[in-house]
Model the fold of this input.
Amino acid sequence: MLNEDKFSHFGAMMLSLMVHACLLFFVVPIIPLKIESSNQYFIPVRLDLGQIERPVTAEEPGHSGTTKPAQQGAIEGGEKKVLPKGELPAKPMPQSNEAEGVAKPAGMPGDRANATTANVVVPIYPKVALNNNWTGTVVVRIHLDSQGRPGLVDLVKSSGYLVLDEAFIRTIKNYYTFKPKRVMGVDVADVINMSYTYSLDH
Done:
């Protein structure tokens, strides 16, 4: 009976040693591999297409068996210009009519360099000037709007008699009509000078 117990105890010890040996040889080497694989991570890599080399085939001219880097550039005058990284080719500027040899028109039909009178009325000779034989030439500056209507009238040169000056200015504001200055078919404001001579000869 004692021998059988010793044999059973010995057998149990051997079985335990075999199990532990299997664990050491088969299970333990796998554990660090799993731990190492769980710590793996990916490093992002930026790919620059400008640095990729394109192989030159034997059919292309100038083949020397080596590869040439592909360069991004702009063609100017038949020569290839290499642009700095990140810079885009400049857009061509539109050509003006002057560059194409087309001259701009100097004016349009119906243009007027200055405003002109459309209706002229002879000023009334003041009675007091007739009785005293007052004569003289009045020069005024007339400010016209884009419709040819007189606004401000400045006295540039007096006839020497206020009554004659005021008579001419009053006639311009009440009875004169004008054609406005016109530039490229558009009526614009203008300033013109006019004069009138009071004389007893006619």
